[in-house]
């Protein structure tokens, strides 16, 4: 990158600097694959708002420190610890995080995201809402929330609902890690650039428009494995009932049957609430989608599966979660409906007060 740093604002877990006319955000928790926490989100909100009004900044780049990825999601260990004490800090964290997602989607300047390596959950939220989204051969992205008893958030339900056919439903229910080519197919990314070219691209962004810079480095992406599975994905996931989807997948056999096994290992409540979220979000704005995800998220905080999923996957690492209820059949429609009920005075309210960039 360029040698001269005109301005640098440094914090331990997220770094901000300006090089040429480019504002650079570097998520700086490489040992945690740059997992987001409350302090990082607040700092990004403040700095992005300042750069939106700074005429010397023409574009913004977000990237991750280290070589493992942009961002593995929210800091779920911190969320787990907070849940043991009532979950109020997590609710505040999500409120800020979702405001950040909306700010990125409405940003008045080009917002370039290097979606290299792991880009999961909250990492999707700080990248896929941007205007210039770049994946590489190392990209592994997705919304794996059903694995931990949660539901896709950070606007992920809206993004996946817009994917071709039912491929977004498949990605959401299985929580699959997807390639850069799959991300392009799903509409989560715009360009494929080899990872070895990212440093040169970042340097080019200091003095060129993103359009001019990216065209110098972008290449044709490999074929998407997800695109090749459209036939059985579209037919099996067209149902609005999770048990029917699993039944169709098992009948289809092969890769579809493997997907059924994956889904039935997830939290049954999460699977059903995720499916309902995807169906309900169609036609909503991002702000309305984030409001809905906030309602669902707070209900997950007070339920048993989110805590149990984090315990099994991250804390104790026994990979043996005990879901309650234990099967899809035991999760009733009325249970699912409760996740979408109004929060009253605790509503996030983004759709009522559109996010401003300044």
Outline the structure in words.
The chain has 358 residues and is α/β, with parallel strands linked by helices. 46% of the residues lie in helices and 12% in strands. It has helices at 38-52, 76-83, 88-105, 122-125, 156-161, 167-174, 180-186, 198-205, 210-217, 225-228, 230-236, 242-252, 255-265, 268-281, 286-302, 304-315, 333-338; strands at 7-10, 14-19, 22-27, 59-64, 69-71, 111-115, 118-120, 132-135, 140-142, 191-192. The strands form two sheets. A seven-stranded mixed sheet has the order 1-2-3-4-6-8-10, with helices on both faces. A three-stranded parallel sheet has the order 5-7-9. The longest helix is centred in the N-terminal third of the chain and has 18 residues, at 88-105. It is globular, with a radius of gyration of 20 Å. It starts with 6 loop residues before the first strand and ends in a 20-residue tail after the last helix. Residues 1-10 and 354-358 have low confidence and may be disordered.
